[in-house]
Amino acid sequence: MKEIVVNFKLIKKSISINQFLFTNLLEIVGIQADVWKKIAENINTKYKEQQTPGSIRIRVVLNRGGIKQKLGLTDLAELVEKEVKEVCTNGSTSEDEDDNKIGAELIFSITFSINEWQSIRPTSKIYACKRGPRMYQVMSPFEWTNILQEHFFLHTKLPCCLIFKKANVSLIGKYFLTTRGRCSDCGSIFDDVVKDIPADTESRVIMECTYSGTYDIPHSKKRRLHGSERTRALTTMLDAHVNPSVFQRNEATRLMCDGDNISAQIPSLSTLRTAKSKAISATRLHSDPIIAIQMIKYNSAYGSAIHDIGYDKFFVHLLSNKQIQIYKELYSKIDTPCISFDATGGCCRKIKRPDNNLSSYLFLYEGVMEAYGKSFTVLSMISEQHDTLSICMWLKRWLKCGVKAPKMVVSDQSLALMSALVQSFTQYDSLENYLITCFQIIMNTNSNNLPSCYVRNDINHFVKLITQWSPLNKSKFPRTKQLFVRSMTLLIYCTSMEETKEILEAIFKIALSKYDGPLLVRTDTSVETPCAISKRYLQTLISNKSSYIQTFDHLIEEIMLNNINDQEPFDENSNDKFDSSFMNWASLIANNCKLEVETIEGEYDNAQFIPELVPLIVKAMKLYPCWSGIMRTAFGYGDATVSSSRVECNFNQLKNRVFEADKLPIRVDDFTEKLLQYYNGDHLLLRDSQSLTTTVVTPELNNEEYVEQNISEDNNYKLPNHNQTVSGGDYCTDDNIIEKYSRSVVHEELVDRNYSLNEIKSINYYPDTEMIEKSNELLDKHEIDKNDTKRIEPYEENENNTIKKKITIQMSCLPCENGDFPTGIHRCKICNKPVHLFGCSVKNTLSEEGFGESRICLTCAEKAKECEAVEHWQKKQKSTTISQCRSAESYLMPQPGFEHVDLNEKGSGKVIVFLKNGNTFRNKPYNIPRLGKIILDNSCSSDSLLSILACAAADSSIYFEFLSGKAKQNKTAKFIINMMKCPKLKKNMNRERILLLAPFFLSDNEYIGDVKTIDAMDTISSTASKLLKTLPSYKTTNYCSNYICPEFSIDPHTYEVIKLIAFDGHINIQESMDTFLEREEINCDNCDSKRYLTVSVMTHILVELVSLPRDFYSSTSATNIDQIHQIHQNYAKETMMTLDNIPKTLNLKNKIYYLRGVVVFEGGQRTGLRVSSGHYKGFAYRSNDHWELYDDLKENVKPATKKNVNVELLLYTK
């Protein structure tokens, strides 16, 4: 019986032997054991009583009737205890370490703070029992265990994970509070007791604790995250937006010290992430994002801001009543309502389908307009489909809400977006027809069909596209890109096709000419090649844009007068033969230019000969009315340049501010909910603005005033082309739109014709008939392949395909040109028009080849390409060289002096000698005749100045000639010229430098071995005054207006450095120099007449920048703050400037001076003031537009990587 009923387990060495634990040594087997069933069967059979196995086990466990003694279980327990004691005794006598492990015990006291005891102290709680309600004293649930665990670790530094039973609270017992806990890893026992009842709630409470067991084994388990610890973790992660990994490390910093074990109180990353995920899920309306969005739509808190929802493919149209009302009010008060449209990705995650597949990328589309100086979001959409039909349906839905279409829209050059804008806001069913109409209006052939909306392109996007043309980036001449990009931006400001033609001809002649300079065989009319003439013409326009505009004003007036007096009736039938396209018109000009320049030879090669660039320019002209201001006169409103910076700023606001704490992309329902909350607040601010009642002026759309410096990269990337099939579900079907869209494709009858070379001769687009006759003569002299029917496809540039050297035009069908019209055997699949197999049709991929196969005419193929266009976007990392990128706005600014730039100069500049600091020679003396042994020290100021002067002479032929003329009399000029002649540093250069510096810095003291030192430590301004005494920057003259004055003229004075004040580190150098050069009038002391003080600048100018506080007038005794030399140097603070922001040219009395370099100073950090100790460096701005660092502590010249520097001296030369 004993073996059946009782199941013994030997005690582990780690458990203390005491009476309380001994009662647990015998473990009675559970009720499911077979032994209880056998006993019950025997009793029922023998005594015929119905006994269950469970009742028998309860009697044994409770020892009813002394059954344990009758069974002999107590004797067995005493035997087990005796054996265990013997085992423990034998083990402890072997080694002292085992003795310590078995009986290891820690005794310590925990002191609870007032706040901690208030949070865990026992409180009364009533429980409903069978005998009635009973009141118990209980500790705060899920709170007291966390505090005990934390205090346990702080006292013991053990990684044990304690599991507590309930706390026993007794108001009348021996102890007030007792608890027991056990480590879930090592089984060690934690006992604690609070003996006395605390006197009051404002006193500290002490708990006596004992911890015993083998707790030095490895531990792995963690405490559960619950109670206040869970609340604190979720609050930190969700409200304070702390990452789980960061929270875990913050907890380690709070609890642990160097060398401590990892506390079981610190939760694992998986626990924190799971808790965060569950907390976020609890706040969502539904686990399915689409159902959650539908619940948001019918939630009154969002004011019906969700207009339409599509399931597959997914979309959601966001439009509230507030947006409609605000737009209507703005439309009635603004002269030219303009909306900017754009799309961005990276906001919403892909949606998971029921079949576990993911949706396509979700884009956020927005239409934004200006409202009282702020950005107002007119309409929005989140969509999985990005084709023309989906965008058009969104815009048409908006128009159905009773709003009027805007008069002007701005977008990037996304074909899908532009086509949808045209179909929605104009009377034309395709972008192609819109462009054809614009061409006809400009050519004065169609003035009755003006589009109802002016479709424009963002100037930043256009400039960025042309700067990425591969032929420009591959050119080894750095000025090539600037010339062509700036020339293309000149087309933006054209107001007539005559202006455009003049500039295009100049661009094409430069790109197609192999030779430049004077003609080898000079003619009576010209001595220069067309390339040289065109370069000089474009450089002049780029140098001063205002003069370019004024130049064409007179031309425009003459053209308008000629059109009025000599206008001939236009033959509409003859125009039907041609494709009215800006691109074909540009192709005609390109071919004429190629015929004109291909036989001309000049004295030297053309550095800008890039024939591959011409097809790209021709393709860009396809959208000329959109990215330029050529249509401003026809529409009667708009500026030359427009920008979509409003919508770009709105995207930046959403991603970097509204969703700053969220790690985008997020679930689409979370994004939509937060987006609607932001919109609601934004619209409330606009509605409550007092400016709504005032008259609104026309918004300024000029890009040059508020365009963003950094171009958004959202619309220039490509994603995989996903399935674009439009669902026919109830949510995403608009029968009216689809029906109209289908009619526009099927019943289109216009034919996309092309210019042929035979038809070129009959074109009379231009009032200048002499030019046409000249072109005809050139055409007659050259044989051209009439069978060449290659087309220049718009919108795409495939860099993998080689571009033909010959410039081709879009050709029409050759059989049609010969009068052989289609027989009807082959017809267009879409419009059913008869076509030829080759020439005026393309292959239909769904038709089998052979007799009677269906084709697609060129017009339908172009429209199909437009209809299948898709908006592209893909997030990319920011460029690490973003600081070196040029902004699009800079290409639109006038560039004074650009006409003097040498376009044929290659990127690498002339190499000069690199001067090393005398300290790097390790006190090695030089034996100089008549001077003895010399050691050079601290030569950074002179080295920096001489380096930038040598670079200036290497890059400027004018300055080189100036120094060469002074080299015989001036040692500094001679040294600079020698720096250009020696490719490497030689000993004689060091000797010459010592001879140059010795008159100013040689010390009279002699050291051991008769060694003298040249300590050249000095300020850069003082060094320049010493070395350039006979090479001044400016001179002043003083003369009297009275010719008979005894002192009519005073001898001129020369100065080496121009000193300018930069108040608080800010200065406009051009304005300050203009003020400095102004003539000053003073009273003559001899005759009381007016005396005039004038300033004249020399071949080079050195400008010292002195930064002073604005309140310096009240803090100094100097009577005239312009006398900078009277101010102690330590008053001057640092002048921090960005190298790229320093003016590259100065216009001084109608003479252009070019930036050649700067000298910067790196000193101590003492209150930001200039100090006497530090280091000078020279930054040379070379002819290839790159900065070079000349630091004499380095081994050689380095490219400039540090852009923000403390500038003390600037060098400009002619």
What does this molecule look like?
The protein is α+β, with helices and mostly antiparallel strands and 1214 residues long. It has six domains: 1-71, no CATH class; 105-282, no CATH class; 289-454 and 643-687, Ribonuclease H-like superfamily/Ribonuclease H (Nucleotidyltransferase, domain 5, 2-Layer Sandwich); 460-554 and 576-633, no CATH class; 821-868, no CATH class; 909-1114 and 1124-1213, Cathepsin B, Chain A (Alpha-Beta Complex). Helix content is 36%, strand content 18%. The protein contains 42 helices and 37 strands. Strands 27, 30, 31, 32, 33, 34, 35, 36 and 37 form a nine-stranded mixed beta sheet that branches. A seven-stranded mixed beta sheet has the order 11-12-15-14-13-16-17, with helices on both faces. Strand 11 (306-311) and strand 12 (314-318) form a beta hairpin. Helix 37 packs across helix 38 and helix 39 packs antiparallel against helix 40 (987-1001). The longest helix has 21 residues, at 545-565. The protein is extended, with a radius of gyration of 44 Å. Residues 1-25, 87-102, 547-578, 690-811, 875-885, 1113-1130 and 1165-1170 have low confidence and may be disordered. It comes from Aphis craccivora (Cowpea aphid). This is USP domain-containing protein.
